[in-house]
Amino acid sequence: MPVPESVIAEIQSLREEINSHNHRYHVLDDPQITDQAYDRLYRKLQQLEQQYPELASELSPTQRVGSAPATHFEPVIHEVAMLSLENAFDDDEMRAFEKRLIDRVASTGAALAFTAEPKLDGLAISLLYEQGKLLRAATRGDGKTGENITANAKTLPSIPLQLTGEKSTGMIEVRGEVYMDHAGFNALNDSQAKIQGKIFANPRNAAAGSLRLLDSRITATRPLLFCSYAIGRAEGSDLPQGQFGRMQYLRSIGFPVSPYIELVEGAEGCIQYYQKILSQRDSLPFDIDGVVFKLNDIQQQQQAGFVSKAPRWAIAYKFPAEEVTTRLLDVEFQVGRTGALTPVARLEPVAVAGVMVSNATLHNMDEIERKDIRIGDLVIVRRAGDVIPEVVSPVASERKDELPRPQMPDRCPVCNSDVVKNQGQAAYRCTGGLICAAQRKEAIKHFASRKALDIEGLGDKLVEQMVELEIIQSIGDLYHLEFSQLAALDRMAEKSAHNLLDSLDASKATTLGKFLFALGIREVGEATAEALANYFRHLDKIIAADIEELQQVEDVGPVVAANVVQFFNQVDNLEIVRDLVKQGVHWPKIDKPRASESQPLLGKTYVITGTLEGFSREQAAARLKLRGAKVSSSVSARTSAVIAGEKPGSKVNKAEALGVEVMDQAQFEILIN
Ligand code: IVH
Hints:
By secondary structure, the chain is α+β, with helices and mostly antiparallel strands. The chain has 24 helices and 22 strands. About 35% of the residues lie in helices and about 20% in strands. Strand 21, helix 23 and strand 22 form a beta-alpha-beta unit. The termini are far apart.
């Protein structure tokens, strides 16, 4: 029987979805869905692939262990692959696991013994020791190749640099989990908030992000923990013949081993242990997402062997995410720092994992539509990774009448500015920029920050206080502040009020680049602001530039260009910018380019098509721009010439039809030199 088209499409789309989540999780350290949601997708795909083996593919995410390492650490090949674990989600799956093993290994009929320990939610690493000395530490990467993070691993106090005991000769490779406990995680986020650094979504991201920092001095300040759980390989030492004994051995030579580790018997012993740890879960000082069971007998482990991604002799029995149902009363929209509007569910209050919940995230409009969530629905709510509650789905069978769909407002609920959705992005944004109250505080903090106008003494707390008291509305009000207003503030002595006025005055002398950066235009960072300033040299030219012109600046693509245009199209933004200048914000004139940097191609426009040897499309465009030319993506009668590399597209035909010159690689090289 042929496989239904719909199944082929579903497998394809699951693979793409999982691949993209894998990338976000493993490479970017920035997941967009919870582990449980990911596990569901993965299992769905696994199940379909089992059902339709003819659709198997080497490229399927089920066929690999993780994702490629990032490029900035030296690669490390794992001589013994770092495997993953199969998952069980209920007692029957645990019993099936035991049964499979009995069939494979237990000839005597005696019950199987397993080690049992919590499954820490961090990241796996490998530690290689020779003659008792830590030689190398590596992340798991894709299981075959990881990253060399020795310098960072050495900063963890719980990782022994030198093993203890006389047995520590020869070579041993130890594996375990790097993680962060709740206290460490909270302290880290607090201090990150103070320095306006990255705030981590959960302890696992914080651990992964901290271990993969290029500067190990920063890693050293992060509260990372390590717990060992396996031996990868060993030479020159007689290891105990049981997994449990081996863990005691590791403990004896200096490794942290879970204090919760136990030996249990059979599937029923596993299930009991699981229940016990589950009941302690909320009071543990760190996140766990299940428990891990490993066949204790090493010979039996060898008999059982492996499947492609995991050993047959081990399993992770995953905890359920705590889910409850409640009524979705309304959907409101919250405006974030960058103006993104996030739908927030207002719920009939309900206890989830011991915490009363009346708000939950709905992520974005695409999710609401995909799940078909309606206002008034009974919905399933869960605490994702025990952090932010989320609405999982509606209980469709409970919907009696036609219910209204949540609508994205076309106006910002805070400032009434237009709400827009940029192409290809899930988020809707308020275009209010500097006038939107929700964005104002952050915008002012950014304006005052060191790399922007550097207003000494204008700290976050002060900004918040002043915005709340409506002493300032936007950055435009900063230079109108008067002594009497400042002196009346909490904890503001006369002297500090004077000092602040002085530093406000001093901040007016800046550079065009810093000023542009300070405005907080979306995706215009320091470097882009500097490049815009150097290219246009005058604020008015930047304000007047259109999208095409802006893209002539190196590193400015269509998205950034559109952000700039949109920013200056808002009358309120423009008024604030003009007023800042009127209040005395100024910068030195930027000199015209020197003669040696003259721009012979000024006024010319080129279109590039096909592949140029030795140049990427971006590099070729950059070289042309450097000489003053514009580069466009479409051919018109005004195009100066089309530059055609290997395998040119239809643009050459269009050029010929319009009588526009077509240049080859050699002519291009003369042009840029
Ligand atoms: S054993 C041979 N034990 O879970 C099997 N893994 O989902 C290798 N993990 O990559 C893993 N706690 O990062 C094992 N007690 C534990 C664990 C544990 C957490 C992680 C580890 C692994 C992942 C597999």
